[in-house]
Amino acid sequence: MAAVALKTNEGRPGTRAVARHVRVSASKAREVLNLVRGESYGRASEIVAFSERSVAKVVGKCLDSAVANAEHNDQVPAEELFVSACYADEGPTLKRWRPRARGRATPIHKRTCHITVVVSRYTDEELERMAAQDALRERAGASARAAVSRRERVEKSRAAEAAREAEHEHEHADEVEDAVEDAVDVEETNDAAAVEVEEVEDADEDAAKGEDAAKGEDAVAEAVKVDETGDETGDETGDETGDETGDETGDETGDETGDETGDGADSAEERA
Fold first, then answer.
1. Which of these, 80, 164, 170, 228, is most buried using a 10 Å CB contact count?
2. Which three-class secondary structure state does DSSP give residue 21?
3. Do 88 and 137 belong to one domain?
4. pTM higher than 0.85 for the full model?
């Protein structure tokens, strides 16, 4: 009579949950299961939550299902459970074909697996040891909390100092901006004063030009008056000179004519 083969994955103590026909190969599922094996439920949940493999979601659901079964069926708290066993068995392989060159076909094997997670309760000795470790952690946590609070105070003081420095820099920047604005105002005032000086100088030049023009007009008027006076004087002098010259010329001409007339009469008388 043939001996019955004993399945090593059967008969393990604890509460289990099985996810069947998972569309992933068993080797890929085992990579995640090896990480959570022997860990507590809380630790295993953290590992699965932060795993980068896609099958980790399925493993996490299977783990939660096993813990829920233990709480509902065996009335064991989740804090006292750990992953006592977890494994992945190969499931049926989906065979597909891909056409290739020259009429050939390449097989495609889409593998599946069955994931099993078994959770068990810690022993009383292990629970006591874990409680002692938690107490030590709490005592150590007091100092850790003190260190954390001290670190927070230091960070707050540094932040306040940085804020004061930023405020000081802001005030310095405001002072610089005010100084720049004052300098700009002074420059604008100087420019306005320069413009006013230029305007005054232009006005003085215009006034000087006006005075020169007035003086020129006065000189022209005086020259005109002088010309008029000269003309009047010349006319009067010319008239007087002409009169005198005419008188003298007339007298001389009359005398000469009279003399000549007298001489002619005498000649006529003689001829007669």
1. 80
2. strand
3. no
4. no
